[in-house]
Amino acid sequence: MNRQLEHGTVELVLGNIVDQQVDAIVNAANTGLLGGGGVDGALHRAAGPELLESCRALPVDREGRRCPTGAVRTTPAGALDARYVIHAVGPFFNESSAQKCERQLRDVHQAALAAAVEHGCESVAFPAISTGAYRFPIDRAASIAVDVACTHCQSPSCIKLIRFVLYQESQLDVFRTALRSWSPAV
Ligand code: AR6
């Protein structure tokens, strides 16, 4: 399914994030940025050692993080069929701080799109950030991700194609509902 907005398109596909041919692939990373399971593991395996080397070269802060939660770092994409990997650190979902988690998930999507614009990208593929190991409820994550993407595509300087790559049919269904029902804030 896709939805054409004023200046760009938001697309939903069932598939594997590592197979995407786009300018930038977004990784669902952690603050250390040295790989992990899920999307992160799959991307590092497919990209080869160059991706890990690029991540290792990024500066580490006093808390040992290469990227704080809610932010992104951009590297070359190694052997992937993309120019960049945008490493995005989503929040670990916790119901007792749900509002903060929701804000951080929104921030990380906005930061990834801003990084893609900054690097001159016209197409970006996102996984469903935070909905695996980080346990963000899929319906809440989908409505935030879709809202940020659709809002972005209302702006003339936007990314022309934002693709969400869902791993399971059930996740695709949830994103489909969110994309169909999205309307601009008044
Ligand atoms: N392509 C597309 N989607 C995928 C793929 C794939 N190859 N593999 C999994 N998914 P997760 P998170 C889906 O856990 O929740 C890592 O260890 C998956 O079904 O990859 O942000 C990092 O190093 C789920 O819906 O990311 C971090 O420590 C979604 O992608 C931590 O997990 C995200 O699942 C980040 O957790």
From TrEMBL:
Domain Macro intervals: 1-183
Matching InterPro entries: Macro_dom, Macro_dom-like
SUPFAM superfamilies given in the database record: Macro domain-like
Identification of the protein by name: O-acetyl-ADP-ribose deacetylase
Organism per entry: Roseiconus nitratireducens
Lineage per the UniProt record: Bacteria, Pseudomonadati, Planctomycetota, Planctomycetia, Pirellulales
